Amino acid sequence: MQAGVASAEGQTARLTFCRYLEKYLARFLESAEEHFMVGQRVVYYVFTERPAAVPRVALGPGRQLRVQYVVRERRWQDVSMARMRTLHEALGGRLGREAHFVFCMDVDQHFSSAFGPEALAESVAQLHAWHYRWPRWLLPFERDSRSAAAVAQGEGDFYYHAALFGGSVAALRGLTAHCARAQQQDRERGLEALWHDESHLNKYFWLHKPAKVLSPEFCWSPEIGPRPEIRRPRLLSAPKEYAILRD
Fold it and tell me: Binding site residues, as ranges?
């Protein structure tokens, strides 16, 4: 499941798996109210197949929550990949009209310190916490040359995390259109990229360099443990429980 947030200085996140509602969404929203774009106008967008299950969370002045229904996908891989198409369509509607900037975030994480306007830019990519120290030849880009997501050996700048990306409405319309189109091309060829929408996101940012690259502090995994360069994590991922949440 993904959650969406838009604002005059906006953000978007999106929720995909139905069981993520009960397990993660309330904490995500409550922590966002404490730390995300404090003092800015914010609209949270939640895309889910179960609108009635979205929890009630107290929101501050100038902050709103909108819930949009999406069709349930058969496989979690399809849910992951469908978000580019869903977000592209939303950006062409009300979300695109009321937001200046948008962030797309996974909700199996929570805010732990201030996440403010310093993160805003025309296009924003997030260094992957697990891979930012890896040499380029080891990064998990899609290597099947038949895939529209393929990045050849020796190519690629950094490996970016699909749990957080953002930018202006126009920039994200371009990004999501590219990724949705590339995923459709792969489907027609009977292909599926190794890391699904994240593989296509990385191909896009190789072709179209992001205006801002966020430090791993902005989307950190506690499972990695302490590192001297990670002084103030902004978002912390929850432990993965795929066996429970993806069945």
Answer: 20, 106-108, 128, 198
Beta strands in the chain (DSSP E): 2-7, 42-48, 63-69, 101-106, 109-111, 123-127, 160-168, 212-214, 235-237
Residue 91, H or E segment: helix 76-91
Residue positions counted in the chain: 247
pLDDT > 60? residue 93: yes
Bind-site residues for UDP-N-acetyl-alpha-D-galactosamine: 20, 106-108
Bind-site residues for Mn(2+): 106, 108
What 3-state DSSP class applies to 106? Answer: strand
Q: Given the DSSP bridges, would you call strands 101-106 and 2-7 parallel, antiparallel or unpaired?
A: antiparallel
Q: DSSP assignment, residue 108?
A: S
Distance CA(57)–CA(41), nearest Å, equals: 16
- Taken in order of first residue, the domains within the chain and their CATH numbers are 2-245 (3.90.550.10)
Q: Which of 198, 217, 229, 241 is catalytic?
A: 198
Chain segment 77-87, per-residue pLDDT in tens: 555 567 899 99
188 is catalytic: no
Encode pLDDT of 182-223 as tens digits: 999 999 999 999 999 999 999 999 999 999 999 999 999 999
| Distance set, CA 159 to CA 12, 25, 181, 183, 245 (Å) | 21, 26, 21, 19, 26
pTM for this structure?
Answer: 0.89
